Amino acid sequence: MSFLEEFQANLESLPVILQKKYALLRDLDKSLQEIQRQNEHRCEQEIEDIRRGVRSGNITPDTSVIRFSDEALDEQKHSIRIADEKVALAVQAYDLVDTHIQQLDQYLKKFDEELRRERENAPISGVPASAPDGNTKSGRGNEGGRGGRKKRQTSVAVATEAQPTPVNPTGMELDLPVDPNEPTYCFCNQVSYGEMVACDNPDCKIEWFHFGCVGLKEQPKGKWYCSNCAATKNRRRGK
């Protein structure tokens, strides 16, 4: 079992465990609110009885001997115990989530090391990985895209000159270390990641584009052209 499969297996039980703890927290909270209401009502009643006793002369107005009943004090102690249980449950839920976060950090570190080893062992190539449908791809790769077209570093350089200000509509930050020899794509001039689509113009200078950068959420049907190539085609038709 890989570290990713192991983490997924451990993560599957987390929602159920948290749900049970939160349900118990809700039950404790309902019990606590009910006991607090009872205790407030009891204390108000006892205070009123004490006032009537003092006014009638049956009770000495000495605060050192005036106290609530044992029932009222027991309710207050019970409330404190329930509150302590709620705190303990909240701490357990926090620790449980924190443990999984720490595991995820460890798995991401291992995954990062594996990617680094793969890049070091793989031959240097400026070509993105091919996707099953031939027009989209996920992640970083070394194979050609549509029709075996190769992505050349010179094309990337031209695309960089055409786009002097890199943009990234997806807002995705790449925290993984990037090989300086790894080619970049798209209007954002970043490396291959996530779902990507290839422009159907064989002379496209950029060729591959991230879905988010071109406003796509799914694989386009039929031929698809980037905005630069589409504008070029429209100018040619106008002539």
Automatic annotation (TrEMBL):
Q: State a single Pfam family of this protein.
A: ING
For whether the record's keyword set contains Zinc, the answer is yes
Residues of the region (Disordered) are 119-171
Write out the annotated subcellular location. Answer: Nucleus
Detail which positions bind Zn(2+) 2: C199, C204, C226, C229
UniProt cross-references to InterPro entries, sorted A to Z: ING_fam (IPR028651), ING_N_histone-binding (IPR024610), Zinc_finger_PHD-type_CS (IPR019786), Znf_FYVE_PHD (IPR011011), Znf_PHD (IPR001965), Znf_PHD-finger (IPR019787), Znf_RING/FYVE/PHD (IPR013083)
In this chain's numbering, which residues are marked as the site (Histone H3K4me3 binding)? Answer: Y185, M196, D200, W208
Q: Could you tell me which SMART domains the record lists for this protein?
A: ING (SM01408), PHD (SM00249)
GO CC terms in record: nucleus
Give the binding site residues for Zn(2+) 1: C186, C188, H210, C213
Question: Is Transcription included in the keywords of this UniProt record?
Answer: yes
Oligomeric form and interacting partners: Component of an histone acetyltransferase complex. Interacts with H3K4me3 and to a lesser extent with H3K4me2.
Q: Which family does it belong to?
A: Belongs to the ING family.
> What is the designated name of this protein?
PHD finger protein ING
Specify the species: Arachis hypogaea
- What does the organism's lineage look like at the top? Eukaryota, Viridiplantae, Streptophyta, Embryophyta, Tracheophyta
